[in-house]
Prior knowledge:
- It is a single chain.
- The protein is an alpha/beta fold.
- The chain has a domain at 92-291.
- The chain contains four helices and 23 strands.
- The strands form three sheets. The chain has a 19-stranded mixed beta sheet that branches.
- The longest helix is centred in the N-terminal third of the chain and has 23 residues, at 2-24.
Amino acid sequence: xxxxxxxxxxxxxxxxxxxxxxxxxxxxxxxxxxxxxxxxxxxxxxxxxxxxxxxxxxxxxxxxxxxxxxxxxxxxxxxxxxxxxxxxxxxxxxxxxxxxxxxxxxxxxxxxxxxxxxxxxxxxxxxxxxxxxxxxxxxxxxxxxxxxxxxxxxxxxxxxxxxxxxxxxxxxxxxxxxxxxxxxxxxxxxxxxxxxxxxxxxxxxxxxxxxxxxxxxxxxxxxxxxxxxxxxxxxxxxxxxxxxxxxxxxxxxxxxxxxxxxxxxxxxxxxxxxxxxxxxxxxxxxxxxxxxxxxx
Length: 296
């Protein structure tokens, strides 16, 4: 047994010696066996490297595979669209924003609010502030020397629209405004509104003038009016008015029938008009639109 071990060791040493001598004389290390043959070590190493490179070139990472299932290109489109629309601040975009509440404070000069293809404000406006916060667009704008046009999307309907005049601004709403609730304040300026299509309408003026068209007959509205010194009229008839001598009517509510002493509670819509100074609010309902000019 001892002799067998010595013989095996001798063969191994002889083999290593011959391999080394052969390599020195220009031969190869034939130390790798695959594909049914013995291959030089250098060839095996090269083949292994090529195999690894081929696997790497055809490997699909988990991130790449996820990207192929989920299209995220809209994110970049959204950011580019938003970036292009912020020339004068943060403006809503109909295609990406779901605006249901609008709060505009309009200061000084002349403003026109009209319907168009998307939200827009003319370049002549000076922005005090404009923000898109979820479903609400809030803006404070100055008109100064040049008229400003504010565009709202065609056929849009909102939960709430609040528009107020400040610094004696003059505002004209030329197209129909549609919302669940509409609140307009003329302050000491002038506000002329086209049709106000809303279930709940609140109108206010201090020493200014506000006029509006109502798309339904007067008896469809629960009308409440009040004044300290000014006047509120419906279709040319004063509802509340305080005269110079202090006489007149300061409060009005059409839900109460003075003859029967009963109250009507089934009005589908409501209008509340309040004049806190010497201003005037004029309402014109559908019943007289065919035979009357727009209120002034």
